[in-house]
Amino acid sequence: MKKGRVNISFQKKLTIGATDIRKIVRKMQNLLGFDLEELTLSFILDKSIHEINREYLKHDYPTDIITFDYSDKDKIFVDGEILISFETAAVNAKKFNVTLENEITRLVIHGVLHLLGYDDKTPSKKKIMKNKENSLLMQVLNSENKF
Question: Is the pLDDT of residue 147 over 90?
Answer without folding.
Answer: no
